[in-house]
Design goal:
Length: about 100
Amino acid sequence: MHSDDTLTQSFPKKDPETGETLLFVCHGKTCGRSCRFLVDRLEQVRAKGYAVRAERTICMDRCEEGPNVRYGDQIHTHMNPIKVSELAKKVAGKK
Ligand code: FES
């Protein structure tokens, strides 16, 4: 039921203006309970000098595998603050 919205949203790996790496954190009904914790952790990683930014996004239709975080075309499932921190450090360089 969410797929129409999902398909029309694009997920660039970087913000073309700032060059920051973008991680899209699902804010849908199922994943959304964890969204704040994942976004908070990404903000901590950012504060340590990594060029990464969290964006909240709509349901990715993978609710049963959530919480989900998308980087470009890849959906990273079963995320938690530790895993999202490791992902951010891996894909984003230091500022
Ligand atoms: S609520 Fe996150 S994939 Fe559906």
